[in-house]
Amino acid sequence: MARMVFVAWDYVIMATTMLISIGIGIYFRFSGGKQRTNEEYLMANRNMSIFPVAVSLMASFVSAITILGLSAENYYYGMQFAVINISYFLATPIASRYYLPVFFGLQKTSTYEYLELRFGPRIRTLASLTYTFQMILYNGVVLYAPAIVLESVTGLDRLISILVVGLACTFYSTIGGMKAVLFTDLLQSFLMLSAVVSVVIFASIQVGGFGNIFVIAKERGRLDFTNFSLDPTERHTWWSLIVGGFITYLSLYAVNHTQVQRLLTVSTLSRSQMCLWWSWPVLSILSIVTCTSGLAIYAVYKDCDPSLTKNIAGIDQLMPYYVVDAMRSVPGLAGLFVAGIFSASLSTVSASCNALAAVTLTDYVSRWCKINDLYIPWLTKIAACGFGLLFLALAFLAEHLGGVLQAALTIFGVVGGPLFGVFTLGMFTTYATEMGVSTALLSGMSVTLWMSFGSPRPVPVKLPLNVDSCPYNVTLTPTTTSNPSDYFYLYRISYMWTSPIGFVWVLVVGSLVSLVWRHTQPWQRAGRPHPDPALFTPPLANYLRAKYNVQEPNVQLQLIKSDEDK
């Protein structure tokens, strides 16, 4: 396949994207409080507007891997995956009403400070280290994987891709802090959406209209939404997508530090809840448009599939291949597409630099070392820069890591469910103990890791593909099919059930261990006769306040803080 050669307009669009992102970082470095305090650097002085925060919530976890993978998912497996957007709608009020008020009431920089207040220091360290390791691995892949895809299809050198994206986001994240991250996310989200929309529009023109995309998709079995099977080994069903999507969404938007940190950058709880509500349609619009782009590309290649003709080596190369094959005749469109892919990586990596800097200074450095307050903002910036450079180094080493790459891509689901279970036990029960949740978290992640990475495992079956109308002869390689029942049952369970299984495991095991082996609770160690209502979800907090006639907020929190000051 002939690779695309960029023209001047493509380079202009890409360069402009990077320069604007860097310019935003420079602007916030020399405006306002000039990032002199950690409150401004990490939390944007808690006075941000709703819209940029809502968009940033979406952009933090929608990476280039998501965009490339989701379009290919709908091309090869159909649009059933779009059902997951229903789960996002169902989960948003749960996160908004029952989890967010706890974090907002505490006003802590690190989400994992809550775990120490509720349980103790060991579970805080365990959860924080798990989060740090997960984000470091994932962001190395976020830089590496799109660079490989773009190089293989467009000829854009991977070294240039990784350096441009990695150094740009490290620079503006380090000097501009949270405000720079939030406002660059706005720009980058617009470019992501523009790139995907341009694919849909161009394909619509090729197939004779937008409606024809869905006519063809329906004729070829890609609009089948009737899979209501209860069988957990079926890859995508209504139940797996809604239940699995529900728990995955909550593990990210209710308790994940990267998201909670953004939700605390506004001034009031009601505004923070509005950010969460507005992020849902933003996320769903991008998700549905990206799903549609997969169907649009299928409408073009319905009778000459590029994977069967060996024009692409992997399904994630589908969208870049379409841009090369069909869109290069229009100057600038290829540059817009690559800028959109780069932007997806920029938004994810910059969010992680800032979030990991907050965790490092709060959960490790400030706990273990006595540091002059004047040095903390500088150390935070050094940490943010260090993590950006670490992501770069891991991206360059990624090709030598073999199976670890795939592990990094899946670890969000593996870790998310169990960690969500720990926070849920803390906020919704008074009996859960540090021993119980620590045991449950370690055992739960062991189970989800085993489920996700055990092998051999069956290969997902694609929907029918065709090469009847290719302008050249295609020799198809015979494919062998295996009986799914030949594989170990646990390895056949859909990946969408990983998070729910990890979540339920932690709830059950954590409850049993806590009830059987009683341990001293934090409020008992602090000499209080009852738990602090501020550490529990609002319905339980109101019950505890009424039961113990508690008037003052955050009593336990104040006691622990005063002990630390001594």
Overview of the molecule:
With 566 residues, the chain is mainly alpha-helical. It has a domain at 1-72 and 143-232 and 257-269 and 293-401. Helices cover 69% and strands 0% of the residues. It has 22 helices and no strands. It has helices at residues 8-29, 38-43, 50-59, 64-77, 84-106, 113-118, 121-154, 158-206, 210-219, 238-253, 257-263, 269-301, 318-327, 333-368, 376-397, 404-428, 434-453, 489-492, 498-516, 522-525, 538-548, 555-565. Helix 8 (158-206) packs across helix 9.
Topology:
Elements: H1 8-29, H2 38-43, H3 50-59, H4 64-77, H5 84-106, H6 113-118, H7 121-154, H8 158-206, H9 210-219, H10 238-253, H11 257-263, H12 269-301, H13 318-327, H14 333-368, H15 376-397, H16 404-428, H17 434-453, H18 489-492, H19 498-516, H20 522-525, H21 538-548, H22 555-565
Helix pairs in contact: 1-8, 1-14, 3-8, 3-12, 4-12, 4-14, 5-10, 5-12, 7-8, 7-14, 7-15, 7-16, 8-9, 8-12, 8-14, 8-15, 9-12, 10-16, 10-19, 13-14, 14-15, 16-17, 16-19, 17-19
Structure summary:
The protein has 566 residues and is mostly helical. Helices cover 69% and strands 0% of the residues.
